[in-house]
Amino acid sequence: MADNGRRKIILDCDPGHDDAVALMMAARHPKLELLGVTTVRGNQTLEKTTRNALNLCQYLGVDVPVCEGMGTPLVRPPAVVAGDIHGATGLDGPVFEPLTRSKDSRHAVDFIIETLLAHGDDEITLVPTGPLTNIAMAMRREPRILPKIREIVLMGGAVGLGNITPAAEFNIHCDAEAAYVVFTCGRPVVMIGLDLTHQAQCTPEIIERMARIDNRASRLFCDLMRFFSQTNREQFGLAGGPLHDPNCIAYLIDPGCMELKSMYAEIEIRSESCYGRTSCDFYNRSDRAHNARVGVTLDAARFWDIVEECIRLYG
C-alpha cells in the first residue's frame, strides 16, 4: 500500500468537548491521515457519543467512516457518565444543524480489525481518547492486529491524583479491565494522563485568542470551551477546561511539545477503592519491563500554537 508520508490514525473517542477538539485537529493536519472515527460509551451514553461524533464530522466537513462501538465495559456494569462536565448531550454548548450524516454500518471493533489487517505492520496508530473497551475487544477478538499497530497514543490515567475517584482517572476507571488488556498487549503505549493534560487549561485568554481567528472551526472551539471551562471551574476549581484529548494529537503532530518518561505502568483491577488506578513506577523501583511512555511535562505555549495552527486549517 502506497505511503503518502502522513501518519495513519484511527480516533477512538467518546465526544466529549475535548474529544471534539482532538477530532478537529486530527481531521485536517497535513501530518495526519484520519482513517476513521470509532465511538465508545464514556463521557455520555453510546448513542449520545455517536451522535456527537456525527454532528462534529458534519459540521467540520470530515468525510471518514464513523462507527459505533461498545456500549458497556468488558466485565463490570456501565460506569457513570460525565454529565456534570460535558452536559446532558455530552457536547453541551454548540447548537448544531439537523443531523443528516449517518453512522457506518460496521461495528467499531470490526472496523478497527478490518482496517488494521488491510495495512502493513507498524503502519497504523490507534488514538483512544475515551475508555479502552473497543481497542481491548479488537485485540482479544483478533490477535493478528497486534503487529499492525505502530503505537497506541491514549488519553487516560495519572501518575498522581485521579479525577473520578481519588485514585483513578475517568477513562481508565470506566473500563479498567480493557485498560489492562491494552497496557499488557506488548505494543508501544504513550499514556497522556492528567499530570500532563492539566498543564493545558483553556483559560478565557485562550478562548479570546482562538475567537480572533473567526472561522467555522474557531467558532465551534469557543462554543465548546466556554461550556467546558465553566464546568471544570465549578467541579475542580480550575482556571479553564483542561484539553485532555487534544494532547494526543499534539504529540502526533509535534512530539517535542511534551516530555515523556519511560516506565512500567500497571492497571489496578482488583481493589475496590483503587480500581482503575494507573500505578506508575515513576522512579523505576521495580524490575518490571517498561510498557509505557508517560506524559510528564507540556510546553504549553507550543501546545496552544499547535491548536491554533489546526484551527486555521479550516480557512
Word description of this protein:
The chain is of the alpha/beta class and 315 residues long. The protein has twelve helices and twelve strands. Helix 4 (108-117) crosses helix 5 (133-141). The radius of gyration is 18 Å and the shape is globular. The two termini are 31 Å apart. Residues 9-305 form the Inosine/uridine-preferring nucleoside hydrolase domain. InterPro entries: I/U_nuclsd_hydro_CS (IPR015910), Inosine/uridine_hydrolase_dom (IPR001910), IUNH (IPR023186), Ribo_hydro-like (IPR036452). Keywords: Glycosidase, Hydrolase.
CATH class: Alpha Beta
Query: Count the helices. How many?
Result: 12
Proper CATH architecture: Alpha-Beta Complex
Shape: globular
Q: What number of structural domains do the residues give?
A: 1
Distance between the termini: 31 Å
The total beta strand count reads 12
Mean pLDDT: 96
Protein name: Nucleoside hydrolase
Domain Inosine/uridine-preferring nucleoside hydrolase: 9-305
Keywords: Glycosidase, Hydrolase
GO molecular function, one term: purine nucleosidase activity
Quickly describe the structure.
37% of the residues lie in helices and 18% in strands. With 315 residues, the chain is an alpha/beta fold. InterPro entries: I/U_nuclsd_hydro_CS, Inosine/uridine_hydrolase_dom, IUNH, Ribo_hydro-like.
Key features?
315 residues; alpha/beta; Inosine-uridine Nucleoside N-ribohydrolase, Chain A; eight-stranded mixed beta sheet; two-stranded antiparallel sheet; 12 helices; 12 strands
